[in-house]
Specification:
Rossmann fold; five-stranded parallel β-sheet; two-stranded antiparallel sheet; 6 helices; about 40% helix
């Protein structure tokens, strides 16, 4: 059985007959959370799952500039935590047709109401860096997840993937290295050093 099939089977077993089952997929920047979420979405029965990315709750650059946080974009304090927490509570309650925002990296903006979580959606795949962060207020998310997965990747591989990502988004190698050193790596260290235990850790 492949690793992704093993993860899917574990989710199915844990979910049982639950009407809604919320899975947290956490890990540092560049770990492959979005790839894993997409793979699980493909393997789960059609129409039963939806991906809910934490990145949809990035503060706009206008807000970050106003608060002096633009150089730290992607750090925990640069997200609308309250909005994200409220969304997850609405999802857990089974409220029908919940609109969710999705971050568009090509324009560095969140698109409001870009996807819909329907009332009959059983598996909610929530993905983001800080879902298991053991710091206030992020630790308040713990009761909202039924199953947690942490994607653990060596730091040198994370750095390689992030270099590739920023090149694809138009940064020079010099600018990409500077951004990784000043922004991505501190976020990576924070995620790795201050995370709660996960139900499953994958590499």
């Amino acid at each position: 059985m492949s690793e992704i099939a093993h993860i899917t089977a574990a989710i199915f077993k844990r979910a049982g007959k639950a009407r809604r089952f919320v899975v947290a997929i956490a890990g540092p920047p560049g770990a492959g959370k979005s790839t894993l979420s997409a793979s699980l979405h493909e393997l789960l029965p059609e129409g039963t799952s939806e991906i809910v990315p934490m990145d949809g709750f990035h503060y706009d650059d206008i807000i970050l500039n106003r608060r002096g946080l633009r150089p730290r974009k992607g750090a925990p304090e640069t997200f609308d935590f309250a909005g994200f927490e409220t969304l997850l509570k609405r999802i857990r309650s089974g409220e029908p047709d919940i609109a969710i925002p999705v971050f568009d990296r090509s324009i560095e903006l969140s698109r409001a109401a870009a996807e819909i979580v329907g009332a009959d959606t059983k598996f909610i795949l929530v993905e983001g860096n800080y879902l298991l962060l053991d710091e206030e207020p992020w630790s308040r998310l713990a009761p909202l997840f039924d199953f947690t997965i942490f994607v653990d990747v060596p730091r040198n591989e994370l750095e390689r993937r992030l270099m590739e990502r920023w090149r694809e988004h138009g940064k020079s190698d010099e600018d990409a290295r500077a951004w990784i050193a000043s922004n991505d790596m501190p976020n990576i260290e924070r995620v790795l050093a201050r995370r709660r235990p996960a139900d499953m850790v994958i590499g």
